Amino acid sequence: MRAPPRLYALVAAAVLSVVGTALVPNPASAASASATTTASVAPADAPSKSSKPLRPNAAPPKLRASGNKLVDENGATRRLLGVNRSGGEFMCVQGYGIFDGPVDDASVKAIADWKVNAVRIPLNEECWLGLSHINPAYGGANYITAVKALVARLEAHGITPIVELHWSHGRYTGGDSHCPGTEYATCQKPMPNAQYTPAFWTSVAQTFKSDQAVVFDLFNEPFPDRATSDLTAAWKCWRDGGSCPGIDFQVAGMQTLLNAVRTTGARNLVLIPGVAYSNDLRQWLTYKPNDPAGNLAAAWHTYNFNTCSSESCFNEQLAPVIAQVPFVAGEIGENTCSHGYVDRVMAWLDAKGASYLGWTWNTWDCSSGPSLISDYNGTPTNFGVGLRDHLKGLQ
């Protein structure tokens, strides 16, 4: 999901996507907005008994891809089942802090109490790199220290941290532009940029390469297919970057970002999303980047308002990918303040032995977030109760 600035007004009405695109809010809407939360700044087979989720409070494993499964150091099949913890992508660039709400030990324990074994942490490249327009209290070394501390707290509770680039630099004025008036990382861009994103991933990989329990998610929701009607060109842009049709800045493709990670010596599991806001994986296998470490998984996002939101689409578009590589649904959700859609998604992914994480563990409105919780003690919304009860039922 996009996480528009805190000051955007919340609008509950959703707009149905066009082919292959997730909900695209305009600057007055908030598909993932935070309105009033106080900031806290802190430094292809059915699953078998061997494919249980990671058990909370055990040390998170060093995951690697083995065929179309994720396995741990002992070769046991694992699944990542959890939540997103939004805030690190927008709070800093807006000058409010680093995280949206508490990220102390008590708040992490509340997440673990849902039997969560993975948390995805959206980040902002300008804040991590400490660019000059970022308040130094929230950027650079202070930002990195806070992210490292959250990663350590998650691991202490047996939770796999997934660090992910959500907002990035580059002025974009083409189709589905969300902040055309600025080049700053204040919204979702169609692709990563060559100016800063490789440096971001080099730094992140150097920071965590000695801890292979940390998973890297290269880019939140690419949409080069909204910048051009040529889908072949969009997928080539996705993999190779460079001068891409309809995109105003030089692009860093997925191969470049993967290279930035691997040249540091990091062998961590890397998640690579598709196009159409990560909802379209039809050409993912064709354009799959080359990984010398052989440790990749496909990442997918799904909401009830996406184009690919039916079991028939899942069977047609996703099943071929799941048959060949590990599969992680990095965001699942719906804007109904209920859980009928995610119930169906989880059932389908369970049958495939795939992984999934709900959006999002933040106290926003469940229709405009959509938010899983109403407080940081872990009280679920009417939407979140579906994920909570399902995860607890898997134990």
What does this 3D model show about the protein?
This protein is an alpha/beta fold and 395 residues long. It is built from nine helices and 13 strands. The strands form three sheets. An eight-stranded parallel β-barrel has the order 5-7-8-9-10-11-12-13. Strands 2-3-4 form a three-stranded antiparallel β-sheet, with no helix packed on it. The model is unreliable at 4-56 (pLDDT under 50).
Any key phrases for this structure?
395 residues, alpha/beta, 14% strand, 8-stranded parallel barrel, 3-stranded antiparallel beta sheet
Give the number of DSSP strands: 13
The termini sit apart by: 28 Å
**Overall body shape:** globular
- Classify the beta-strand content into a percent band: 5-15%
Compile the SSE list and pairings.
Layout: E1 39-40, E2 64-66, E3 69-71, E4 77-78, E5 81-84, E6 99-100, H1 105-112, E7 118-124, H2 125-129, H3 141-156, E8 160-167, H4 197-208, E9 215-217, H5 231-240, H6 254-262, E10 270-273, E11 296-303, H7 311-322, E12 327-333, H8 340-352, E13 355-358, H9 384-393
Parallel strand pairs: 5-7, 5-13, 7-8, 8-9, 9-10, 10-11, 11-12, 12-13
Antiparallel strand pairs: 1-6, 2-3, 3-4
Helix pairs in contact: 4-6, 7-8
What's a concise summary of this model?
The protein is of the alpha/beta class.
